[in-house]
Amino acid sequence: MKPSILFRIVYNLVKVVFFAFYNITIEGRENIPTDKGFILASNHRTNADPPLVAVTSRCSKFAFVAKEELFKNPIFGWLIRRLGAFPVSRGKGDMSVITNAVEKVSEGRILVIFPEGTRSKDGTLGKGKTGVALIAAKSKAIVVPTAIVFKGKLKFRSKVTVKFGKPIQPEEISVGEEINPKELRAVKSRIMGDIQLLLEDKNGEN
Question: Which residues form the domain of 57?
Fold first, then answer.
């Protein structure tokens, strides 16, 4: 599956703009799988996070879980769908999102997801939601914990470090045939814990 011409144009444009606007450092890119679909789970601080993660990972074939409000504008909705985004109705327990996400990963796409479900107002990592755990359990895909680190508010020439952590293998977060809430909370805690460790690592502090 090759990325579309539209994707390549937008991707390269965004990459040039982001690397010119911000002072970006990348750590752990060797941890990113290159031969299969996987889940990239990141902390969430700003609206710039999805494209920031995309251009620093240097991957293609993305799928993004995006809030349904972003699709209300027909033109913008059409564009982000073409770039790999699909909507989620937050707080409504929409299981079709889980099914869609698992299908995207099985197709070889990189599923970018922000387990907190909303942006952090103070930069600290939230508890996260079990949706990421359910997707990981059903897809049996590798999860790459990711951290976006910067001080204060994101602005022109802000120092930003994007860290890609050691992949979490499917067998490390496996669950039984009858998935239960306790197992999902344990998987979610493992993923969020790895993201927190990346945030606490002083090597990438700006």
Answer: 5-204
Which parts of the chain are beta strand (E)? 23-27, 38-42, 62-67, 85-88, 110-113, 143-149, 159-164
pLDDT (tens digit per residue) in 44-77: 999 899 999 999 998 888 999 888 888 999 999 8
As a whole number of Å, the end-to-end CA separation of the chain is 37
Residue 98: give its domain's CATH number. 3.40.1130.10
Amino acid in the structure at residue 13: L
Is residue 82's pLDDT more than 70?
A: yes
How far is it between the farthest Cα atoms of the chain? 49
Establish how many alpha carbons lie within 13 A of residue 60's alpha carbon, considering only the half-sphere containing its beta carbon: 13
Number of domains in the chain: 1
